[in-house]
Every structure is written in C-alpha cells, then in structure tokens.
Amino acid sequence: MTYTEACLVINMIPKVGPIRLRRLLQAFGDPQAVLRANADRLAGVEGIKPELARQISAWEDHIDLPAELTRMTDAGVHALTAESERYPALLRDIHDPPIVLYVWGELTVGDAQAIGVVGSRQSTFYGMETAKKLSYQLAFAGYTIFSGLARGIDTAAHQGALAANRRTVAVLGCGLSQIYPPENFALAERIAEGGGAVIAEFPMSVTPDRTTFPMRNRIISGCSLGVLVIEAGLQSGALISANQAAEQGRTVFAVPGPIDRPSSQGTNRLIQQGAKLVMGAEDILEELAMLPGLVSPTPPKIFSKATEPVALPVPPPAARPASPPASPPPLQPDEQAVLAAIETDETPVDAIIGKCGLPTRVVSSTLFALELKKLIKQLPGKHYVRLS
To answer: Is the Cβ–Cβ distance between 182 and 151 less than 8 Å?
Structure first.
C-alpha cells in the first residue's frame, strides 16, 4: 500500500480528522504503520478512544479501497497528500490541514498566489455583478480565485475568473461524485477542464451536510493569501470563512453595502471589526503587495488611481474606427411605462404592476420584451433591475 492509498483509507474512517491523524503519525511515523497497528497500541494515542482504535485496526472490514480508487479513476480524479509538491503550500501550514485532497483538474505551485472569494447564496444583483467584476480583475492580475461553487456569490466569482481566461479553484463540501449544487455541474466541468481544479477533502460519495461546509470553508481560506467577502447577512456561512481566515492569519477584505439591506449587514459588520474595506480590486492588490515576503505576480497593468478600473486591455483610440453611438431600441408606450416602473435596484414584479397601472398579463409580456432588448434583467424571486 502506498503512502497516498493509506491516507485515503484513514480519510475514509469516520472521526479520524487532521488533528487525530497528526497524533497518530507522531506515534507511528507514517500512515501505513498506523493501519498496521493493533487496537491496543492505537488506543494508547491521545484522543483515540477504544472504539475508534478498533475501527482503525479493522479497517479492511468496512473500508473498500479498490472501489474508491475505481470511482476516482472513472471520474478522472487524483489524490494529493501533504507530501506532494502540488499540495497547496499555504494549506499545509494551517492548524488542521486535510489528510488528503481529491482533485479533478490540476493544482499548480502558482496557486500559492490565491484569493478566496465568498458570499451569500441569496445574493442580489449588486452582489453578483460585484463578484464577477472583482474576480475578473483579480484573476486577470495573476491571482487564482478560490471559492466554493455554491449558488450566488461563489458562482459569480468562478464565472468572473473564467471570463478572464484565468485560473479558478472550486472547493466542495462533498465528494467529487456528488457535485453540489447539481445545477453547477457544468460550471465545475468548465473549471476542471479549463485549466483549473475542483477539489474536496471528502471521499468520493460523501453528500453535503451542515458539518461539511464549515470544513470546506477552512480550505478556501487556508489556500488563500486573503479572503474577500462580497455580500453576507449576519447568519451567512461566509462569515465562518472570514473568521477562519482571521484565525489563520489571512487578510480579510469586505465590500460594503447599503445599511438597510440584510444581505449587507454581515459585510458591513466585518468592516466595523477591522476588515479591509474594498471599493475596487486595487485595494486588494495594494494590501497584498504589502505582505512581507510575498512575491506578487507581474500582471499587465490594469488599474490606476486616477482612472476607473478596466476589465481588459483595449487598443489605443487611433486603432479603433470611429462609430456613432448605438441608438436605444424603440419602445412602445407599454414598454416605456413598465421600464419607468423599474428601479436601478431590485424591483419586485408586484411593485412594477402597481406603479405602471397595466394589467398583469400585459406587464408579464412587456417584461419579456424588455429582457429581449437587454434593457432589464430578471433576478430570482420575480425581481427585475434596469440595465440602462
């Protein structure tokens, strides 16, 4: 049995986490020796109760290693232990690093230059657009974007990095054969097959639950130089990531939001407590450049204090043919009335109907027409926002 296979076995034994493994390795030297030890010797290790000692010594009775290896091979997944050069260096040094990482795609040594981006699953249009923009710019500046593949801010963060054709890594709170949420499987595939990675510390078939996500969060922060919280309520799991980042000595960044919006209360509170307030990607880049011993990437210059950040380099004005500004699409009277009823912030459909005074049926068809003209965007919960 190889070192990695022994780590996989130990990782599949319930209640043998990173702390207990460290004590076992101190007592026996390597994971293979741990699996060869008898129950009495195992029970002599601090934190290893007799029942757990029996489970470890009799692991072959309840752990099917060949089946796990087959699942990994079928899914194109490989395993990394802390002995591997590609195991994230920052993660290796936290208090409780994972015993093993399951990897779909590839981790690289360049991923040491990473930023974690987290936030609410119940995100607003403001939060989603901010996550995409900042992740795009940070990725374009040379940083790998780590996030959790969850709905909302995590999804937008991965999408922003992919739009910049740069690296992003999704950290799951489940096994890699149980991609969650299921609607993000296509996004996970794009990440893994586009040069990034989807990773997890859990065996392939583990399903997500309330305990796996906080464990996942410590990996996001553990792999990152800093963690950016873009949108979070007071009970958001993103605040767990921020707390873990602070405990791990990482820099915590937060994007402010409206004081009367529940989805911004967590991020605003973080700023009150000392998180770095972020108004643009340059705030993060400047802060990270100040970290001692950090060798910053050498990206193309895309930020300037005197100008608004831009997403992509563009040719000089002389190289672009002049063209008249595009005329807005013509609007019918009903379209004008419905558009006027929609705010630049999220507007519920009931408010639109009440404000424009048109029948529900007319409003519904008009909203669809305005979407086709790219003048509005529908958000979850039948809310709409103006795009111009």
So the answer is: no
